[in-house]
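User: Fold this, then the next.

Assistant: Folding the first:
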Amino acid sequence: MDNVLSYVPTKQQEQLKPELKALFYQKDRQAADQAVAAFVEKYRSVYPTAMECLQRDLEACLTFYAYPKEHWKTIRTTNIIERLFGEVKRRSHKMAAAFRNEGSCLLLFYAVIRSLHFNKLTMPASSIKQPDAEILHTS
């Protein structure tokens, strides 16, 4: 969302943001695709660069629909990589002179990874495909 909104003038971002956010909260992938098509059609002439950005990254943005519905919220609202780099940036901002070599940078990065707590997703037992018993016991 932030990438798309960065191509929209600041004063219009608040108007567009709720409509853009709604694209990611549809009941299924088909409804999301329809909502995106309507959104792009509505704003293509006004914000062509923003709509190009949305369409370019659309598949990655809607990937969460391929997973069980119980996981959608976690996948949609958690960007682990951005969180990790944001935390490294926050902690290293005042310590730039302390990085004498690559090893000291890696040490900070490792310390940040160890300190973060990530929520684990669990798969229900019914969705895990069990291996075929015949395949396991063939000689």
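Now the next one, as you asked:
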Amino acid sequence: MQHWLLVRGTAGRLLPDEVDVSSLRAHSSTRRPSVQRGDLALCYASGWQNVFAVVEVVGDPENEPGRDRWRWRFALRPSLAVARISEAPPVEGVGVFPRSLGRHSYIRLTPEQFEAGRAAIAEAAR
């Protein structure tokens, strides 16, 4: 099992402050992701620079050839989320700095980074 940070939204197109857990059912990528069924991930709100949810990858990556961008998709199951992104912990608390994310839609986390993020999200969700 691997741990990931899934980048959601863009700096130019922020996610709404109120977290809609139903929007955390899938994640898309421009290239074939290394993410696999059974992996765990933190969701990162680009622009906000906060981690706001914990999800499990519940489907293998699938290619949708009819799409021009974001052709690869995999299913998610949310297990924990804050109510508002503005109340979520900063990504730096996980040991990831926003400038290192670049144009990635996901990055690998160490188990320690994932656990720090999970604990911080759980605390913020209380």
